[in-house]
Design brief:
Length: about 280
């Protein structure tokens, strides 16, 4: 199979699987999701992503219809059915299907969705461009909710501006990107916003911080400002499908590119972890 979709036990191509009209996702975006890379038919950092997925669901009182271990097994089995060596593995749970009503039943059982398709990781040696925008999202950014309209609009604005990603900020404080985490290197120190309710705790960012500790690179998890972003030695953008990208500009002004040695050490460490985990020889196939 070239691309797979799964809904509540049904498997098929994405244009074959049907979703009930009354699934609450249609009315309220009522659900949570997670996603990662599949390499060599292994779901990368599966336990980390499952932990975050079940944590997000619990925060919204959504009942995942399968236990964590069973879901991990299902994702692995579904990935084995899709052709190729590198994939985007996405799953979500919605609260369930019922007639439209803001109030939901306590015994409502969640509906599980999975989508798996071929994917290519971006070349970490190719710099990206960023723009900045005020963060107007709600104050539950730590939950990986399906309500992504602000991120959709920010991503579209970045694309129209010839940029690759949008950096959100609240006042002068940088939070995260539209669909990534953003961190900086300054004077050999790795600086990243702490895991509070203003950002989503990135699995890739967490593992990058672990790599920094192992490499002897000092880590500071604290808020940093737009000015610090612009004056950083390196700007690092991470997500579950692109582990360690770096920026060359912010709002059209050249930025970063001042500490390629430290950046390369971090990139090599996180890519090395991925290759060891999946048994792959390269990130480019």
């Amino acid at each position: 199979m070239k691309e797979l979709a799964y809904y509540d036990g049904e498997i098929g191509a994405p244009d074959e699987v049907k979703v009930p009209f009354n699934d609450r996702v249609h009315f309220f975006g009522d659900g949570v999701y997670d996603a990662t890379v599949g390499g060599n038919h292994k779901v990368y950092l599966l336990k980390d992503h499952l932990d975050r997925f079940y944590s997000s669901a619990a925060a919204l009182d959504i009942k995942v219809p399968v236990e964590k271990e069973a879901l991990g097994k299902l994702l692995t089995e579904l990935l084995e059915q899709v052709e190729g060596q590198t994939h985007f593995v996405y799953w979500q749970v919605t609260r369930g299907a019922a007639a439209r009503n803001h109030v939901y039943s306590d015994d409502m059982k969640g509906k599980l969705w999975v989508m798996i398709r071929p994917n290519k990781l971006k070349d970490p040696n190719q710099p990206i461009r960023l723009i900045t925008r005020e963060d107007t999202r709600f104050y539950h950014c730590n939950i990986k909710t399906l309500n992504l309209l602000p991120s959709v609009m920010a991503a579209e604005e970045a694309d129209k501006a010839g940029a690759d990603e949008t950096v959100f900020h609240r006042g002068e404080i940088v939070t995260e990107c539209a669909h990534s985490n953003v961190s900086i290197l300054k004077d050999g120190v790795f600086i990243s916003h702490p895991n509070d309710n203003l950002i989503l705790r990135g699995i890739s960012k967490t593992h990058m911080i672990q790599a920094c500790y192992e490499l002897g690179i000092q880590v500071m998890e604290r808020p940093f400002t737009l000015e610090e972003l612009r004056q950083a030695d390196e700007i690092i953008v991470t997500s579950s499908s692109n582990f360690c990208l770096h920026a060359e500009s912010v709002d059209g002004v050249k930025a970063g590119g001042k500490d390629p040695e430290t950046l390369k050490r971090i990139q090599d460490a996180v890519i090395g972890e991925y290759l060891a985990y999946t048994g792959k020889d390269s990130i480019f196939d």
